[in-house]
Specification:
The chain is mainly alpha-helical. It has one domain. The protein is built from 2 helices and 2 strands, in the order βαβα. The chain has a two-stranded parallel sheet. The protein is globular and about 30 Å long. The mean pLDDT is 86.
């Protein structure tokens, strides 16, 4: 499964036992709550080197 959000796409794929690939977001214009989730995602990506 390809996804651009760690807490939704990638986590769901891992829980389902499917291989997950983190990709860059397709569009820079996002709904405000998605932009809020990008902050902790950025922290996780920097800690684990994604």
């Amino acid at each position: 499964m390809f996804g651009d959000q760690i807490f939704t796409d990638i986590l769901a794929a891992k829980r389902a036992g499917i291989m997950a690939v983190l990709v860059e977001p397709y569009d820079k214009k996002e709904i405000f709550y998605v932009r809020l989730k990008r902050i902790p995602e950025w922290i996780i990506r920097n800690i684990y080197g994604f």
